[in-house]
Amino acid sequence: MITVVIPVRMASTRFPDKPLAMIAGLPMVEHVRRRAQLAHGVDSVVVATCDESIRKAVEFFGGSVVMTSDAHQRGTDRVCEAMGSLKDEVVVMVQGDEPMLIPDTISQLITPLRAAASLLTANLLSTLEASDLPNADVVKAVCDQSGNVIYLTRSPVPTFRRESVVPVHKQTGIIAFRTEFLRRMVAMPETPLEHAESVDMLRALENGVRIAGVLTPHNTIGVDRPADVALVEAALRDDPTQRALHRQVMDRKAR
User: Fold this and answer.
1) CB 97: neighbour CB atoms within 10 A?
2) What residues have CB less than 8 Å from 164, skipping those under 6 apart?
3) Residue ranges of domains in the chain
């Protein structure tokens, strides 16, 4: 069994009340939830939150919610608590600020975990644009020749002493875990690089855990600031793939 968990909370200094920001007629979290439901191979989708306003909004549309502590600072902690009441073998964490989520990317991400019982976690990666390099909001994933993630950083990497094509991609907010490993990872002490970069998956790398990088050609717009809402709405209107998905989302009924 595979569950998608969307961790969201209202607190945001850059964009207050972001999860409930209206985008093309729906709250942002509802766009994400409905798109996750469209992914093949997913058995259930739940929203994990500590905010009553989010619970009410999601349940208004027929969605499932797990209430969690308001003390969590990281999405992985919130997802782990939510999985305490859910017994599925694999959990996929999807950040609640990805309203342009392509459902097939979730299906793509869970494929390697189904193929290799020894694989504990996989991270969806997308193409790194030149404009992403200096942006500290964008986490860069450095991969080895087999596609495994070997480092995650907010800094522009590498330093190009010579022109070259390198396996550096953008980390997305979509990560799959075997549930038992997620519980172990959350119980581990915070690691030095994790603390410095504020990237929680560094905790896995610093403890010697392999993270499979799953590269997708789909590059979406995450919502970090209020101005991003207009960019998303333009894409939903003008991009053929996004427009078709938006029609499915608007017609979607809860399951």
Assistant:
1) 22
2) none
3) 2-251
What is the C-alpha to C-alpha distance for residues 120 and 84, in angstroms, rounded to an integer?
18
Nearest CA to 141 out of 199, 227, 207, 91 is that of 199
- Strand pairing class (44-49; 90-94): unpaired
Q: How far is CA 40 from CA 35, 36, 44, in A?
A: 11, 9, 11
Integer Cα distance of 105 and 108 in angstroms? 5
Q: Is the predicted pLDDT of residue 16 greater than 90, yes or no?
A: no
Residues 6 or more apart in contact with residue 192 via CB below 8 angstroms: 206
Token look-up 């029609």 returns 247
pLDDT digits (tens, 9 = 90+) for 139-178: 999 999 999 999 999 999 999 899 899 999 999 989 999 9
For residues 190 and 203, what is the distance between their CA atoms, to the nearest angstrom? 7
Q: Residue 245 corresponds to which amino acid?
A: L
CATH number of 2-251: 3.90.550.10
Place of tokens 């709250």: 27
Residues 96/51, Cβ–Cβ less than 8 Å: no
